[in-house]
Amino acid sequence: MKILVLSDTHGDVWSLREIFSRERGYSLVIHLGDGERDVAPFFPMPGVPLLQVRGNCDFYSDLPTEICAEEGGKRIFCTHGHMQNVKYGDSMLRRVARDKKADIALYGHTHVPVQEYDDGLYVCNPGSVHSGDYAVLEIVPQGVMWLPKKVF
């Protein structure tokens, strides 16, 4: 299963257009906040669901601040990260993800790409699309692969 992971687009529709034209074969798109309306012009995509959470800059949004999804046999905790104060460290994020029995914790907010494995928990931040960063998460029988990518 190939999942396209985006965050912090902040109105950068040009970069999103580039990503969607370049990436193929994904079965899910996850947007981790701060650009809820940026992704809308690209959906619906036939056969590709979109999961989104609200970021601190998604004003008047009805999206949840966090979601847990079961994909490819893994439980994925998705959040923007501002509610877990990730700019001051990710210990609260890890605690919440573990409480939710997640295998993977995805977040944004800091605009800094992160890829870590901590005792059964993958903790990943794709960075900011607006800064040129995104990621592809692949769930395969052997485990989880996190592929950081650049728009430009």
The CATH class designation is: Alpha Beta
Tally of DSSP helical segments: 3
Q: What is the N-to-C succession of helices and strands?
A: EHEHEEEHEEEEE
Shape, principal axes of CA atoms: globular
The number of distinct structural domains comes to: 1
Got a strand count?
10
CATH topology: Purple Acid Phosphatase, chain A, domain 2
CATH superfamily: Metallo-dependent phosphatases
Give the topology.
Layout: E1 2-6, H1 13-22, E2 28-31, H2 36-39, E3 50-52, E4 66-71, E5 74-79, H3 91-99, E6 104-106, E7 114-118, E8 121-125, E9 133-140, E10 143-150
Parallel strand pairs: 1-2, 2-3, 5-6, 6-8
Antiparallel strand pairs: 1-9, 4-5, 7-8, 9-10
Could you please describe the fold and organization of this structure?
With 152 residues, the chain is α/β, with parallel strands linked by helices. It has a single domain (2-150), classed as Metallo-dependent phosphatases (Purple Acid Phosphatase, chain A, domain 2), CATH 3.60.21. The chain contains three helices and ten strands. The chain has helices at residues 13-22, 36-39, 91-99; strands at 2-6, 28-31, 50-52, 66-71, 74-79, 104-106, 114-118, 121-125, 133-140, 143-150. The strands form two sheets. It has a five-stranded mixed sheet with strand order 3-2-1-9-10, with no helix packed on it. Strands 4-5-6-8-7 form a five-stranded mixed sheet, with helices on one face. Strand 4 (66-71) and strand 5 form a beta hairpin. It is globular. 38% of the residues are buried. The mean pLDDT is 96.
